[in-house]
Amino acid sequence: MRPTVLLVLLAAASANAQYSSFATGRSFNNPMSAMMDTMIQQSIERKLLEKALLKKYGDAPAPAAKVEVKPTPSAPLAATDFKPGPHTVAAKFGDLAATPEDKRALAAACAQILEGIEGQPDFRKNNVAYGLAVLIGVSIQLVYGKTIPDAEAEQLARDLNDSLAATPNFRKLPAKDRQLLYETSVITAGLMVGLNQEGLKTGDASMQEKAKDMARQMLAMFMPK
């Protein structure tokens, strides 16, 4: 089954359901948001990331055309790296499907998303800051319709790296939990992009709105009103 079809199944499965973050008790209409909310609450000091994002984007992000990347970030990028173990998140997403066949197919599609994003030339593999930057960047594009230039996307990753490196909870986070946060961020970003693209391709505005709604929920975790 094609990944785009699986995205439709995923959207339909979560359309009328409510999922709660066991860390905060907040409810979401899709399981990815609930999962991310729990992990962020447990592993990251929200206020530090919030401050960095609000300073850069405010309430209505409008990325500049040209941004100079800092030659030397405050913290080395290795501060948010991790030594990877077995991939587990794609299988967790696969479990959202209804039948064994669809579970396997959805897990395979999610694994392809992770592999595809990790294969991008400027993407730092196995790095939490870069994983979160992809998620936040995609969310900003979907919600505000703004394309973030490569230089600004790189700067966002470096800013997140500095904020994470300054967070005691994150510094103590074991590699397996860093990997869980990273893979969930990357795969969720890819699912949102795929859902939006399928909506554009088929003319289904409800799918595009579903992707945008997920993106709003993701941004609310980092930039609450």
Main beta-sheet annotation: 2 strands, antiparallel
Radius of gyration: 17 Å
The arrangement of helices and strands along the chain is HEEHHHHHHHHH
Distance between the termini: 40 Å
Mean of all residue-level pLDDT scores: 79
What number of structural domains do the residues give? Answer: 1
Number of helices: 10
Strand coverage percent:
under 5%
Low-confidence stretches: 60-67, 69-73
The overall strand count is 2
Strand arrangement across the biggest beta sheet: 1-2
Gross morphology is globular
Present the secondary structure layout.
Elements lengths: L2 H12 L4 E2 L6 E2 L2 H13 L2 H12 L31 H6 L5 H19 L9 H17 L5 H16 L2 H4 L3 H28 L2 H18 L3
Antiparallel strand pairs: 1-2
Describe the structure.
Helix 9 (175-202) packs antiparallel against helix 10 (205-222). This protein has one domain. The N and C termini lie far apart (40 Å). It is mainly α. Residues 60-67 and 69-73 have low confidence and may be disordered. Helices cover 64% and strands 2% of the residues. The chain has helices spanning 3-14, 31-43, 46-57, 89-94, 100-118, 128-144, 150-165, 168-171, 175-202, 205-222, and strands spanning 19-20, 27-28.
